[in-house]
Amino acid sequence: MKLTLHIQPTPQGPARAAFLAGGDPMVWLSTIQSWNVDPQELEVYAVPRSIRELHVTGLLLVHIKGNFPAQVELREAYQCVGSSLLIPQYASMSPQVGPEEWKNLLVYDWHFYHPGIGMVGFQRSDRVQLHDLLHYPTATEQDWSLAQSGSTPLPLLRQISVQPSTMQEMFANVESVGDKSLKDLLKNAPKDENESGDLRLTLLNGLDNLLNKRPKLQEGESQGLLGKWLDQLQQRILQNIEDLRKQRDDEINRLLKLFQDDPDEALRYSIPLNSPYEGRGIAPPSGQLGRKDPLDFNLGGLGGGAARDNWGLDAARRAALHQHYLKVANQKIADGDFRKAAYIHAHLLGDFYTAANVLEQGKHYHEAAQLYLDHLKNPGQAARCFEQAGLYSAAIPIYLELGNNEKAGDLYILMDQVEEAQLQYQGCVEAALSRADYLDAARLYQSKLHDDAQAKSTLLNGWQQNQSPIACLNRYFDFFQQASNEEFDREVQTIYQTQVKPMQHSTYMEVLKEIGKNTQRRGNLPLARDIVYSFVSKELLAEKLDHLSMLNTFVPKDRLLQGDASRFSAEMKTRKAAKRLAARTDEIASKKAKLHKELPLEVDKSWTEARIINHSLIVLGKEGASLYLFCSDLQGNHESYPVGRSLGYDVKNQLFALPDHSHYLGITRTPAYHQGVNLVLDVLGNELHWMDLTHDPGTIAFVPVDREKIARFTRNSDGSTTLHYIDVMGQQLESMLVTNIYGHPEIFPALALNNLITMQFRRGYFFFVIPGERYLYRMDHFGQVTTYELTLPAIKMAISDENTVIRLVVYLKDGQDTMTYGCQYFRMQNGGVSIYSELFEQGAEPDCLLFMGQGLIVTEKNQVRLYDTPRNGVPRRIAAFELEEFIVDAFKGPSANQVGFLTKDGKVLFYEIGELNG
Q: Coiled coil located at which positions (predicted)?
């Protein structure tokens, strides 16, 4: 029985053990001391590097009493499966094993399974004593009996308190003011912002609160002399408070004007607007803005340890300041002053993600790494920045913790630690083979371990196991590209005779098709040509033309053969077209959709989205924590490639591959790069670019805008939102505050969502709805939002292509009646949005919405409905049909009259619907 580990996003059990990587006992002991766990409660075992290398690579600590306390922070925690098998806490094991089976499988006292090292067994006799790790100095014979005891230490300071004033003392101080105003009393007060304004408003508010606590007059009771005097005093206090508020308003007005006249000088008087951290208390308000110098990004000033003075800005002034900050930050990025731009985004706006991005652009990698690590909790990005900074020793532990052992090995190579690097690479090979990724394992053998023999053997194994077989065999033949034509030809024949089963003949022809693309070699491969002759002749007997064109590829100089093949192909296509025409007449008359093509996908994966891009089919799927892309040229050549790690079970990964922006391909995912991305780009063409769409919790949507720019829509800590523009490499370009038509920040109350919302960009505008909100939003490229009220709360939206009149459909749901759904239809006209229909049809909640030319496709479970959306008028249903499986996604097919459906059971179906839209 083969046991397999699967990475999970959450702990699968309590921490029974911990692993301390490295070989430094001082690090081990200091880490154990930081846990505050009694060392007598731990069993300690020295872990070897591998079965062949017995040098210690780390320490395994097993808790004797059961599990580590939950508050102990363990870098590598392990859970106990069965009675004695220790596996990573963030992993599960398959298949499931019963208690009796564990008794037969587990033979040691402890079985430790490390993803990079493998399985290690320990008996309790193998335990190591922690005191054996200590080196004691040699005792000396000096006499220490003459030592004198020192002076008695002073008692420890245990408490500081303030002696409170009595009520009599307070009123005595108030009476001593006499008839002078508080404004006059404070006329000669210090001008420092932390003394003058703070002292004034603190005193005024304190006195006002004290006076408000006076007992109220009872009915019939008259006000005494003291009461009248206190009323007068309270009026003066309130007047002074109002004066101070006016002073603060004047300061903000001066600041806003200064931003127009001298933005750099204004920035020195700026006040923070947002912060993801709460301050430690509220600082006494000040009536003056202090001058800051210098203006520089500072990691130490980002925490929430200090009290804050909240100026209580109204919405208009807050928005104006926010926009000024972003405008200056955009200018600083354009000028190359990245530290000042990072200061604005981090210290003034609390946008740590954009600040880190800007610091990266300015090559301030160390501070960007600390920002990612400590404040954004994004270790993957932090490790990448440490690597760019040359701090390999800081990046390696993070990569190891993230499971990116290959990158750790690459950094070990840069540090000339070859043995450590090979250990990591070997662990990566074993991990790749455990998930049946033979392409990646072969790549590691070839490029990292420099073992071509193992690489070729692994690729042939991938071919036999039908795991990316075409790619595996093509890369196997790449090893023979430097050989002579005769040797290469013999290898092609040998593989065909020894490694190709009858059911693999068609797949092998796809491999030969790739070989035939080599113009220098294809005419001198007689043995490969014979294979093509044999296979094509069998296809022709069965009236198939799938590989007839390969005759021209392998016999390029025989013009007579090319002409015969062309005539034969034309005649057969004519006969087939006549048959299709006869069959289509009945189908058109009955208005039924025709299944054009069916592609099965791997059933062990969950497939979620599909697109046609560069004339190829792309499908996004997931298996466990791994993301996959299925690529097909729609001619029988298809593969699936691992492309990274998913965002977790509660967050949906999104595929961005739009026909109108065919130079883009991207997936929202974790930042760890995967070699499979290169394989996908090779299949789809060199013109395709990979979009950097690293997910972070503040992001609401990603939207491709053009060939060079992507929009990132984010939520700020105060509830406002910001529109960022980044390039295809993920670098920050500019930002602007999202506002309504009055210039106030647009607040979206329902944006506390795990998943990204669907947002589309058409002709200078972003269109989107927020599930549960009764608005359609249109936002221009400067971030100004116009809202259109809906009849019912929205649940999803679809929009037509750029090359047609923009039409938009929003599906709605009645909050009072969970079974009532409807559809509202809009059309762009004269720069605005016009409602053409309210609830043009009611029904159940749809799963997919898709515009196809003038048509609209709506799916519900396995039902498909087709509507005509005329230039003027209300949409009307023109056809409906059923599939056997539930539909997960609907997308445009390879031709104008075809629609593709991705089904729940792992199939892609292409239907001809042009006849239905006549």
A: 230-261
| Cα torsion 653, 659, 664, 665: sign | positive
Q: Is 273 exposed, middle or buried (0-12, 13-18, 19+ CB in 10 A)?
A: buried
According to DSSP, residue 275 is labeled: -
| Structural contact between residues 890 and 856, judged by C-beta atoms closer than 8 angstroms | no
Question: Token pair for residue 629?
Answer: 């892309």
Q: pTM (2 decimals)? A: 0.64
- Token readout for 209 is 């609160």
Contact 875, 824 (CB under 8 A): no
C-alpha closest to that of 642 among 679, 615, 606: 679
- Strands 699-704, 775-780: parallel, antiparallel or unpaired by DSSP? unpaired
Give the integer Cα–Cα distance in Å for 271 and 279.
14
At residue 314, φ and ψ (nearest 5 deg) are -75, 170
Q: What CA–CA distance (Å, rounded) separates 268 from 453?
A: 65
Residue whose C-alpha is closest to residue 775's, from 765, 796, 790: 790
Could you count the other beta carbons within 10 Å of the beta carbon of residue 601? Answer: 21
Identify which of 6, 14, 3 has the alpha carbon closest to the alpha carbon of residue 89. 14
Would you call 473 helix, strand, or coil by DSSP?
Answer: helix
- Containing 322, the helix (H) or strand (E) segment is helix 315-335
> What gap in Å lies between CA 34 and CA 20, rounded to an integer?
13
Q: Are 508 and 494 in contact (CB under 8 A)?
A: no
Q: Domain-by-domain residue ranges, the chain?
A: 4-133, 261-278+290-305+315-388, 463-587
Does 222 or 517 have the greater pLDDT score?
517
Residues whose CB is less than 8 angstroms from the CB of residue 143 and which lie 6 or more positions away in sequence, other chains included: none
From residue 234, alpha-carbon distances to 207, 222, 764 in Å are 8, 18, 57
Cβ atoms of 53 and 116 within 8 Å: the answer is no
Tabulate helix, strand, coil % of the chain (nearest 5). Answer: 35, 25, 40
Residues present in the chain in total? 918
pLDDT single digits (tens) 481-498: 777 788 888 888 898 889
Upper half-sphere CA count for residue 813 (Cβ side, 13 Å)? 15
- CB atoms inside a 10 Å sphere around CB 36: 9
d(CA 225, CA 676): 87
CA–CA dist 487, 198 (Å, integer) = 88
Structure token pair of residue 140: 């000396």
DSSP state of 739: B
User: What's the rounded Cα separation, in Å, for the pair 875 and 6?
Assistant: 48
Does the bond joining 294 to the residue before it have cis omega, within 30 degrees of 0? Answer: yes
Judge whether 371 and 359 are in contact, CB under 8 Å: yes
Q: Which of 462, 492, 466 shows the shortest CA–CA distance to 479?
A: 492
Q: At what angle do helices 505-516 and 485-498 cross, to 10 degrees?
A: 170
795 compared with 840, residue with greater pLDDT: 795
Of all helices (H) and strands (E), which one includes residue 777? strand 775-780
Q: What is the largest CA-CA distance in the chain?
A: 124
Q: CB of 687 within 8 A of CB of 660?
A: no
Q: Are 395 and 406 in contact (CB under 8 A)?
A: no
How far apart are the two ends of the chain, measured CA to CA in Å?
59
Mode of pairing for the β-strands spanning 17-21 and 77-81: antiparallel
Looking at per-residue pLDDT, the higher value among 308 and 541 belongs to: 541
SS3 string, 643-662, reads EEECCCCCCCCCEECCHHHC
Neighbours of 830 (CB within 10 A): 6
Summarize pLDDT for 339-388 with one digit per residue, the tens: 999 999 988 888 898 999 999 999 999 999 999 888 888 888 899 899 98
Q: What is the pLDDT of residue 284?
A: 53
Question: Across the chain, how many H-helices and E-strands are there?
Answer: 24, 36
Q: Which pLDDT score is estimated for 43?
A: 93
